Each structure stands twice: as structure tokens, then as C-alpha cells.
Amino acid sequence: MSIICLLLCMPLGAQTKVTKKIAAKSNDFGITYSLPKTLLIINVEVIKIKTKAAPYYRYAEKYLGVKNPVTEDKTSYQLGRISLSGKGIPDIDNTYIVEFKAGTTAPYVYLTEDGLICSINAEYEAPKEAEAPQEAPAVEPEQSGGDAAVFFEELLMAGSTAKQAEVAARQIYRIHESRLNILTGEADNLPPDGEAMKLVIQQLEQQEKALTTLFTGSSSRETSYYDITLTPYEDLEREVLFRFSELLGIVDADDLAGEPVYISLKAADLPAAAQAADPKEAEKKEKMRKGILYNVPGKAGVEILMNRKSLYKGEIPIAQFGYLENLAPTMFEDRKKPVKVYFYPETGAIRQIIQ
Predict the structure, then answer these.
(1) Cα–Cα dist 211/141, whole Å
(2) Which label site among 61, 159, 197, 202 has the fewest CB atoms less than 10 Å from its CB?
(3) What's the rounded mean pLDDT across residues 326-343?
(4) What is the pLDDT of residues 64-107, one digit of tens each?
């Protein structure tokens, strides 16, 4: 069973907030906390390519030797990089109470805003969440072939398209020759210094590029990112994650306009401690759950494919594929040396115990 959700990726700049909870008489020396389940986040890069037809494309090979100019306006999409990460979200089926004895010295717990356990008897500072690599869709400026600046008087006065193409090509050769003369020092009026020469060369290159696009066409690229979320509870075998179309980009998993992108997920072998022993052993373990419960996450291998091509392959810890363990309450009864415990809030596993 799994739930797949497709979202346009938004920038992540916020830091996880944590709250200090003190075990006191007012709350019967008990603090409620949750263990997490793992939400998989598949980040997909999609590149939108817009091409614009060149007005003189029929003459591109004749005058410039270009054999494949853009002949029609078109929008297409390419699938870029795919990455995978995990996030802990509260598991309502795994909510417990940290119980302390009244004699324990100033016991306290740090929790995230949504109740995930971070530390016991230890100051906890949440790490800053990494900035999303894309704060806004990345756009490559269009190489415009329709800029009014390139339509000089001689070109505008040319009657037919064929004549205009001839005039534009002749101007390209003039610009190319002028630039070469400046660089070789053969120009009649050379720029007075290096900076002026650099500026003149830059302007000539821009003019040449703008005129050239009248023959070759123009294009622009825009990069967007999508987050697809998935909460796995069992192995997955070639489940459709989303569909991708070169004409439409990312589409829903049930939209047949796109090619399916599959995800396969297989839990690694559980360690012996997680194996269901005989019923008496399981009952004994259940009675032991009077301490502080934490996760021992499992791991899963993940592969994402399209048209039999692997787009991503890796391994990731998953809380719901692991098992629960507990810390004995007696660990926290030493007034002189209170035990400090740090957890990974994203998995519910123990990061460090200091005594």
C-alpha cells in the first residue's frame, strides 16, 4: 500500500522548530511524543525547451551553411536529474508517553512542532534544512531572432524575403570582417584602449548573433522541479510513479498521454531482532514497552526507471520497515548524572547516548 502525491516543488528555507517540554507534576511527569514514519520525496527536474522558427530558414544553408535551422515554433520537454530523500512525519499509530519518576532531576524532552522526539535531558538545536537547489524556475534567456534592432534600413527596404535574407547575410559578413580587422589591428579606426576594444567586439558579436538567428532560429530553456511524495508500507514492483510526455512534461500516473516512470522498492533483510519470534517472546517484548520507545529503521533499495533505463538507484532508511526498541526507565533515575539521549527526528532512531 502506498500513497503517491505530485507537487510543484517550492523553495525550502525554513528551519525545523523544536520545543522544550518539561516533565513536571502538572503533567504527571509524562510527555507525549510520536515516532516518525518515512515519507519518500522524489525530486524531478524537468526542462522546458521553446524553439522559434527563423524567418529566413530557407536560406540558412545557402548563405551560412547551416543545414538544420528551426523551421517551426515548438515546445518540448526533457526529463532531467532525479533525486530521492526521506522525511519523518508523525505516525499516529506510534504515539507514546515519556514517563519520568518524580525524583528525576529536571527531566525534559525536545520535540519538533509536530511532536517527533529529538532529545531527552539534552539541549537540542535543529540543523538548518538545506536550501532547495532551485529557488525559482531557472530560465535561459531566449536567443531572439525578432529583435527590432537587427532590422536596419537596408534590410527593411528589401522587398522580398529572399532579398532580405541576402541583405542580412551580407551584413553578417561585414560584421565578421570588421571584428577580424579590429582584432588584427588592420581597422582604419581602432578603439583607443583595451576596454573600448572589448566593448566594441562585444557589440559586434551581439549584432552578428542576432542576425544569425534570423537564419537559424531561436530557443529558450526553462527548468522546473517537482516533488512526488510516497509513503511505502510494503515492497513495490514497477509501480507507476508518474508519466512523462515530451509534449506535455510531467503528467499524472493515470494519464496515458505520457510514458510511465516506474518505481521499484524492496526492503532489505531485517536483522534478527526484528524477526517475529515465537508468540511468547513477542508478548514479553510488549510488556517491556514501559520505557522510552524508539525506532530501529529498516532499509530499502529503490530504483526508478523509464523505458528500461535506470534514472535513479540507491538505498534509503525507512522507519516503517524497521522495528521498535526501548530504553529502560531506570536509565533516567540517576540524579547526579542524568542520561542524555539524542535522536534522529526524521527516523526516530538513537543518534547518541551520553552518561
Answers:
(1) 17
(2) 159
(3) 80
(4) 999 999 999 999 999 999 999 999 999 988 888 876 666 555 57
- For 45, the grid coordinates are 527536474
Left (φ > 0), alpha (ψ -120 to 50) or beta: where does 337 sit?
beta
Q: Measured on CA atoms in the order 198, 203, 207, 210, is the torsion positive or negative? A: positive
Nearest to 119 by CA among 335, 327, 272, 337: 327
Alpha-carbon distance of 191 to 175, in angstroms, equals 16
Cell numbers at 78, concatenated: 526533457
Write down the pLDDT at residue 125.
81
Assign 5 a pLDDT band (cuts: 50, 70, 90): low
Mean pLDDT of 321-349: 84
CA 132 from centre of chain? 7
Q: What is the pLDDT of residues 230-258, one digit of tens each?
A: 999 999 999 999 999 999 999 988 999 99
Residue 221 · residue 213 · CB < 8 Å? no
Q: What pTM value is reported for the model? A: 0.73
pLDDT exceeds 70 at position 38: yes
Domain spans, the chain? 4-141+220-354, 148-216
